Amino acid sequence: MDDKTLMENLLYAVKGTCDLYFHGTIESSSGDVHGAFSCALDKTLQMQNDIYNKMSEKGWYTTTPAPQPQLKQTAQKFSMQ
Known about the structure:
Layout: H1 3-27, H2 31-57, H3 68-78
């Protein structure tokens, strides 16, 4: 398995973990449980960001900027007017 594939798999796993911790946080029934999930979520989100940044530096995770008219249209759709 090459490094790119390994990093992709790691990123997918960490994203899935973020999802689990997020749902644990919002569904928790006590402050202690909420805090534990929230702390774990914060740490996992930082890990996800670190992996993304490393992949982006290597050109393994590229994004395409959205066209400006599309951004404006979406912003208008969700603005509170």
